[in-house]
Amino acid sequence: MKKFMPYMLAIAIGLSTIAMPVFAEDSTGTTGTTDTTVKADDKKSDKAHEKENKKENKDKKDAKEKAVLSAETLACIQTAVDTRDTAIMSAFDAYYTSVKAALDARKTALKAAWALSSSKDRKEAIKKAWKDYNSASKIAKDTIKKARKAAWGKFKDDFKACKGVTDSELNSDTTSEGADVQL
Question: By CB atoms within 10 Å of each CB, which of 68, 134, 137, 160 scores lowest?
Fold first, then answer.
């Protein structure tokens, strides 16, 4: 405990000097607080100004969001959504057809491999069946990824072509783009 006393005393002195208000003597010989209160007031002023700017920006954003879109614009957006989702559904149909065919080919090849009596031939056939399946599966995944990306890209272009839409409206629909990846 005696070993730690000097350290504890030093820490206590350091903390007390930080916590106490700082007094300084100016050129006239009078004492008073330093300009720390002025700096604190400036910080408060800056924060208030920043708060005002945020409120103004929010008000502008709210005004844009409350803007009424024309029936023509809404129909344009609906068409863009329909085109995007139809393309994604078609891509998934093609993906599932490809995966089903790959699984069917794998099943047939593995069954045939397990009908072979030679261990060497059987190992080669099993290896080939899995290699072919993995290759077909990768192609199917790459194809759906490209198709999904293309559908979303076309949607963004179609959406932007609709008159009177804002970026925040576009972002309100495109923020869920990753949802299709999870399927």
Answer: 68
